[in-house]
Each structure stands twice: as C-alpha cells, then as structure tokens.
From TrEMBL:
This protein's name: DNA protecting protein DprA
Domain Smf/DprA SLOG: 68-276
Classification via Pfam families: DNA_processg_A (PF02481)
Annotated SUPFAM superfamilies: MCP/YpsA-like
Length: 282
C-alpha cells in the first residue's frame, strides 16, 4: 500500500486524528509498511470503544477516492509542511497550481460592517493586479467579502473550509463555494460527509495561517477565531497586518490589540503589496 493510500484510508475512517495519521506515517517509513502492523499501531492509540468502528470503516474505505493531496506529494506547499501539526491530507476542488502563488490571507469578523467592505474593496483589486492569490475561510462576513471581490475582479482565491467539500457552510455561500471550486481552489482536511463542527474551525485556521505569505485582519472583537488565526500566523513567522479602527468600536479592539502587540498597521494597499513583493522577490 502506498503512503498516499494509507493516509486517505485512515482519514476516511473519521476515527483517526491528524496527529495520529502523521505518527502512523512515521511508523510506515521507519518500522514497517505491513498493513496489519500499521492498523495495530493505530488501535494502540485509540480508545477501545472505537476499535470496532475503526476496522469497520477501514474495510469500507476502498472505493474510488475524491481528489486529494498528501503531505508526501510534490505539490504539497513547502510552507505548509513547516507548520505545527501540518495536515496529512487535503481534499480539494479546483486549481492546485494556486498553492504555488504569492498569497495574502484576508480575514475578519463574521459581523463585519462597511469598514471591512471598504478595506477589501480598496485592497483586493490591487492584489489581483499584482497576481497575488487571496486566501480566506469562506465564513460569512469578511471571508465571503474577500472571496467575492477577488472573483469580481477576475482574481484567484483559495478557500479553506471547516467541513468536507460536499457541505456548504454557511448555506448562503453555496453559490460562492461552487464559483471558487470552478475558478479558484477549495481545500479541506475533512473527508466526505463531514459536517461542520465548532471545533473544526480553529483547526482550519492553522491551514490558512500556514498557506499565506502575509495576513491582514480587517476587524476583530476581543475574543474571536480571527485572532486565533492571527496568533497562529505570528507563530509561523508570517507577516501579520491589522487595520486600525476607532477605540470606541468593539470590532476594532482585536486589530488595535494586535498592533499594540507588534503587528504591522495596515494603512494602504501599496505599502502592503510592496512588502509582500520584497518578501517573495517578485
């Protein structure tokens, strides 16, 4: 069995965490490629109550796989390999070549207002002109705005989602997700038939942080998933920019706090693009 087939079949059981898949891959390369040995290794790290379900799903996972990319494939982005707990597998729909482009993640609050819209409308067309691919999480609010404006200006965008590719969340983004699958790239580490769960989205955020070269936060409250993504990006040595806002607005608190903690203030698109071009030598 190839390493790609092993990763895919482990993922399809929906019983094995990403970290355990990576540990099993280590066993594959360093100890044995025997299937019985590898399955026994997995079961050693699963609760006993899950053993029967794991073997049942393993035996059912031999059907034709969806399109996927593994950690060991040449097309897997090197910058994503370097993050903590890199995804062992990414299911995808769209153009994988976009993973090799210069990228800027644009994220913000789901409850964003006209201020985020103004920032995105001013920034994204300039990113498109400079052939920089945008990345976001296809959530309502800032994420959707980023993806839609990118497509409106015939740019390329990558959406990283917190459920499988056969679900559309939120439901109102069904058409937008289909557009991105056709014109850009949609990624998920979750196998088919995986519904969105609240704890999947912080996991999704590490992939956004790992894929981007630079990240911009438009608006964020004091406690939000947006700030989690920004912190992850800082940990991975990405350039993090935050849009300053009025201290009287709760949606500005997170950005102002990021700036106070060392993030670069986003003041205009040109400065941001020049910094990214210098970073990527483009």
């Amino acid at each position: 069995m190839s390493i790609q087939a092993l990763i895919w079949r482990l993922s399809m059981t929906r019983c094995v965490s990403n970290q355990l898949i990576l540990k099993t891959c280590q066993q594959y390369y360093q100890v044995s490629t025997a299937t019985d040995f590898l399955l026994a290794f997995v079961c050693q790290h699963l609760k006993t109550a899950k053993h029967k379900l794991f073997y049942q799903r393993w035996s059912q996972s031999g059907s034709k796989p969806p399109a996927f990319l593994t950690f060991f494939d040449q097309a897997y982005p090197q910058k994503l390999r370097q993050i903590y707990n890199p995804p062992a597998i990414l299911y995808y729909a769209g153009n994988l070549a976009l993973l090799q482009n210069p990228t800027a993640a644009v994220i913000g609050s789901r409850q964003c207002n006209y201020y985020t819209q103004q920032i995105v409308q001013g920034l994204v067309p300039r990113l498109v002109q400079n052939q920089i691919t945008t990345i976001s999480g296809l959530a309502r609010g800032a994420d959707s705005c980023c993806h839609q404006v990118t497509l409106d200006y015939q740019g390329t965008t990558i959406a990283v989602i917190g459920n499988s590719l056969d679900y559309f969340y939120p439901a109102e983004n069904r058409d937008l997700q289909k557009q991105i699958q056709h014109l850009g790239l949609v990624l998920s580490e979750y196998p088919p038939h995986t519904r969105p769960r609240p704890y999947y989205f912080p996991q999704r955020n590490r992939i956004i942080a790992g894929l981007c070269d630079s990240l911009i936060v438009t608006q964020a409250k004091k406690r939000s998933g947006t700030l989690i993504t920004a912190e992850l990006a800082l940990q991975e040595n990405r350039d993090v920019w935050a849009v300053p806002g009025p201290i009287t607005q709760s949606l500005s608190y997170g950005c102002n706090q990021l700036i106070a903690s060392g993030a670069r203030p986003f003041l205009d698109a040109e400065t941001f693009i020049q910094a990214l071009r210098a970073q990527k030598n483009i």
